[in-house]
Design a protein that fits this description.
The protein is of the alpha+beta class and 123 residues long. The protein has one domain. Helices cover 28% and strands 16% of the residues. The protein has four helices and five strands; from the N terminus they run αααβββββα. Strands 1-3-4 form a three-stranded antiparallel beta sheet. A two-stranded antiparallel ribbon has the order 2-5. It is extended. Bound molecules: zinc ion (2 copies). The site of one zinc ion has 8 residues, from helix 4.
Length: 123
C-alpha cells in the first residue's frame, strides 16, 4: 500500500504533462460542446448554433443504458435546455448522467429528434 503522500506525488506527476501542450498548440474548439473544431463567429459549432436557435440541445446518453427500452425505437434522445449560452446538465424530463459512468454522448446526427416522451411533453 502506498501512503497518502506517495499517492499525492503520483497524481501530481500524472497531471503535469497535461499542462504543457496548451502553450504550444492552440486548438479552437466549440465553446459549448467542446467536440467540434469548426466554429462560427460566436465560437460555437453549427450544431450548437442550431441548438441555441432552437432553445435546447438534443442529446443521448453515452455508454450503457443509453438506449430506449424498446429496441426498435433506437436511441433515446433527450432535450437539454439552453439558457444564457449554457446547456443544462439535466434534461427537461429530469434525467441526467449519473456519476462518472458515461455522460452526454458527443454522437449527434444531423437528423436526430427528441425521442424521450417526458422531454417532449415539456418542450
Ligand atoms: Zn458545438
Ligand atoms: Zn428526457
Amino acid at each position: 500500500m502506498k501512503s497518502f503522500f506517495e499517492k499525492m506525488i503520483d497524481e501530481a506527476a500524472e497531471q503535469e504533462p497535461l499542462k504543457e501542450p496548451a502553450f504550444l498548440v492552440e486548438i479552437i474548439v466549440c465553446d459549448m460542446c467542446h467536440d467540434h473544431e469548426d466554429v462560427n463567429e460566436h465560437g460555437i459549432c453549427d450544431d450548437c448554433q442550431k441548438a441555441v436557435d432552437r432553445g435546447y440541445q438534443i442529446q443521448s446518453l453515452a455508454g450503457r443504458c443509453a438506449n430506449g427500452m424498446e429496441r426498435d425505437r433506437g436511441i433515446l434522445f433527450h432535450a437539454r435546455q439552453i439558457s444564457e449560452g449554457e446547456v443544462s446538465w439535466k434534461a427537461y424530463c429530469g434525467y441526467h448522467p449519473k456519476g462518472r459512468s458515461g455522460g452526454w454522448s458527443s454522437w449527434k446526427p444531423d437528423d436526430r429528434q427528441v425521442t424521450c416522451s417526458r422531454c417532449l411533453k415539456k418542450l
